[in-house]
Amino acid sequence: MHQWLSDRAADWINHDIIERGRLPLLVFFLGLIIGFIVIRISVRLIRADVRWWFSNVTAGDTHIHHVVFGVVLTLLSGLGLIAFSVSGDQAVMSVLAALFGIGAALILDEFALIFYLRDVYWSHEGRTSVDAVFIALAATGMILLGFRPLDLYFDALNDLRIGRTVVVEVVAAAVNLGLAAIVVLKGKIWTGVIGVFAWPLLLIGVTRLARPTSPWARWRYLSRPRKLERAMERERRLRRPFIRAKIFIQDLIAGRPDVLPHVRSATEDRLDQMVHPAPPPPAISPHRGLSGTIVGLPGDEVSDRRGSPDGPGPGAHHDSEHEPVEPHT
Prior knowledge:
single chain; mainly alpha; Integral membrane protein; membrane; 3 domains; two-stranded antiparallel sheet; two-stranded antiparallel ribbon; transmembrane helix
């Protein structure tokens, strides 16, 4: 059995990876995984104040986030990949791809910092970084296995005996991206990502109800209360177990080492916060009507309480944009 698995793995690497020029992609994939695991272990050890491990990198009183090192590493390795793409040397490009993967892991691990423009690494908003890493791994893995966007489109066109021209390819790409954008706006991130490679999933995602907290629900369901109620009921009945499992895995990867004792109560509290209808957009001017700006993002309720004359209510979560990601040692 062991010999059979070894032979199959060797054949796959030689035939599907090396001969087809996918070795840099495989090395990038491994660099992304290893970089994410290493940086997560590192920040957990720093947070636990382990004496034998490294401390935070600082410049004076300024904490330097590891996203900075990721940006520098991806820029340098990306420049090298462009420079050596002409020669096509897989050995050199594989080394550069590994560095690019590590740099991408450092960036995506602090994707929430970029998205929210504030330090949310150890809060529930910080779990967005884990989602970003998983999406990048899923997309890279599908390309590595031979799946490519638009392949199913072109197979369908061949069955219909429609020739591939530049116009046909541009239209197919535009339709694919447009459907994926609608699915993502409906709050179905994974369906949108995988659907880029398998367009029937996009058709399913477009026709199904949007998640009640999604921008699509905000724009389309507020004037249709029955549809919004159906979306909320579906969220509670079908998606709640999946959300519970997702939060558990995210906390296990990105949370405290002692996450297990409190995971059940924390999960239920988080689910109660997540399953609710999308709020209507506020009026930005008495003369301009409703704004199309997305509001109600995590953290908005905190700032609203601070801006009120009474200040934050009892039990309010005090969050600061300036608290460090990891405590200084």
